[in-house]
Amino acid sequence: MGAHGSCSTLGEDIWESKIKSQGEVGVVFGVYSDVFGEGKRRILNQTRRTMVYFDRYVKPLLPNNGTILDAGIGPLARFSVEFAKRGFGVDGLDISKSTLAFAKKHAGPYGKTIQFVHGDMTKYISKHAYSLIFCFETFFHIPPPSWVSHYD
Ligand SMILES: C[S@@+](CC[C@H](N)C(=O)[O-])C[C@H]1O[C@@H](n2cnc3c(N)ncnc32)[C@H](O)[C@@H]1O
């Protein structure tokens, strides 16, 4: 391990510190999203709009009771819950253990049908195939390999 830790530790450290300092809304929508107390409403609207597109264009392509990987489930588990409501099996993957604890809390009764998985999506190898891999507001946070090598 280098002076700054391995790249996987670096990613996990960043997201652990973000969830602790920014809270659930801040991690999902940015710290300034909640300045006027609007963060939760904006998140709900975005989730609803996204699910309209999912229901219209993506769901018809999926098998009933298929399985979805929510890569970067986030502290609100908002899309995993929507998928579970529609009868899909869901694996919610996140690099941050604290975030997964929040995700379990926010999933409420739907948490029983969601598998909460701790791991790094850049290294994750699943034991089974998915009908869909869903990744929202997360993929663009992953640094390209050329940046990561600075920390090795
Ligand atoms: C901006 S939040 C979005 C969360 C969720 N997709 C949503 O839209 O509500 C990004 C999430 O991705 C997680 N994350 C970041 N890098 C990851 C990685 N390499 N593997 C798995 N999860 C990761 C973070 O811990 C965080 O919970």
Q: What does this 3D model show about the protein?
A:
This protein is of the alpha/beta class and 152 residues long. It has one domain: Vaccinia Virus protein VP39 (Rossmann fold, 3-Layer(aba) Sandwich), CATH 3.40.50.150. 43% of the residues lie in helices and 12% in strands. The chain is built from 5 helices and 4 strands, in the order ααβαβαββα. It has helices at residues 7-29, 39-58, 78-85, 97-107, 145-148; strands spanning 67-71, 89-94, 114-118, 132-134. Helix 1 (7-29) crosses helix 2 and helix 1 packs parallel to helix 4 (97-107). It is globular and about 40 Å long. The termini are close together. 26% of the residues are buried. The model is unreliable at 1-8 (pLDDT under 50). The protein binds S-adenosylmethionine.
Low-pLDDT regions:
1-8
Helix coverage percent: 40-55%
> What's the domain count?
1
CATH superfamily: Vaccinia Virus protein VP39
Q: For the terminal residues, how far apart are their CA atoms?
A: 7 Å
- Portion in beta strands: 5-15%
Mean pLDDT: 89
CATH topology: Rossmann fold
Largest sheet: 4 strands, parallel
Q: How many helices in DSSP terms?
A: 5
CATH architecture assignment name: 3-Layer(aba) Sandwich
CATH class: Alpha Beta
Short description:
The protein is 43% helix and 12% strand. The chain has helices at 7-29, 39-58, 78-85, 97-107, 145-148; strands at residues 67-71, 89-94, 114-118, 132-134.
Helices, strands, pairings?
Layout: H1 7-29, H2 39-58, E1 67-71, H3 78-85, E2 89-94, H4 97-107, E3 114-118, E4 132-134, H5 145-148
Parallel strand pairs: 1-2, 1-4, 2-3
